[in-house]
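Minutes, project huddle
Topic: does the predicted pose make sense with magnesium ion bound?
PN asked that the exact inputs be recorded in the minutes so nobody has to dig through chat later. Recorded below.
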Amino acid sequence: MSTVAPTVPTGLREDEIQIYDLHKSFGQIEVLKGISTIIRRGEVVCVIGPSGSGKSTLLRCVNLLELPTSGRIFILNQEITDPDAFADELRTKMGMVFQQFNLFPHLTALQNCTVAPINVLKRDKATAETNALKNLTMVGLGDRGDAYPAQLSGGQQQRVAIARALSMDPELMLFDEPTSALDPELVGDVLSVMRQLAKSGMTMMVVTHEMAFAREVADRVIFMDGGVIVEEGPPDAVIGNPQHERTRTFLRRVLDPTHVDTGAEDDAYAARHEGLPDKDGDGRTPILGEGHHSAGLGGGGLF
Ligand SMILES: Nc1ncnc2c1ncn2[C@@H]1O[C@H](COP(=O)(O)OP(=O)(O)OP(=O)(O)O)[C@@H](O)[C@H]1O
Ligand SMILES: [Mg+2]
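Predicted holo structure (tokens), as shared on screen:
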């Protein structure tokens, strides 16, 4: 169910994220090996794949936190891989939510949401506070504006982090496993905020292990493995009826973390974690130390 990868810039602003033949290496290790895809305005794209497949690196390249080794990326039809790009300005158009919430501990929830609008967008305090309160209300925390992060649960902190990102009035939102650091009972509220955001028409690129969420909310699912897009398409196709064995193996593992699979993927997994040769010959370089948190053996999310 793969779609044909685009090869030339479309020139359309509604093609909000355009990625062409993106490569990224860290030293000798090539982590992204030619990623091409376009994410259109209002589209919700979930990126899934095993630990170490390059999902975070892809998101970090889009958000300019990593410099691509080669390839081109356009955000809102402006090329961020152009050395003359106004990177800081473009970055303000993208809200990013990480696994760790990274709130300022010495600022209240409301202040966390106003600090960047006031300092970066030069908004006056009253305007920034009105907007921040609207966003805190949207994430269900309109009455907790005065609370400091330490006084909030992990799920509440993550919702503040979403409100903070929204307070910059971004045109698109990037999420990197926003629920995987949360206790299971706190995941639902964060996903429900994201679901609401998706319904509002926000363009979203979401790295997640939450397959039920991806299946319900995503317009498109991208399955990555070994630094390439193995397949992409509607969730019912990629999750419901995957065409590639690598996708099927991954989904089996994520959907049933207790399943013991003695197949080729386990060899690859063991190789990545123990530095053993990659017996399945899928071309992936065994890398020590990857897979710090994952949907790998026993690490699946909630469904
Ligand atoms: N700054 C870096 N320096 C060196 N290697 C890196 C760096 N960032 C990532 N890598 C390596 O790149 C590979 C892909 O990492 P990445 O974090 O993108 O994977 P991922 O798909 O997000 O995995 P996970 O599901 O565990 O979060 C890993 O082997 C990782 O060790
Ligand atoms: Mg990651």
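Observations noted during the meeting:
- Confidence is low (pLDDT under 50) at residues 275-303.
- The CA atoms of residues 112 and 164 lie 6 Å apart.
No decisions taken; revisit at the next huddle.
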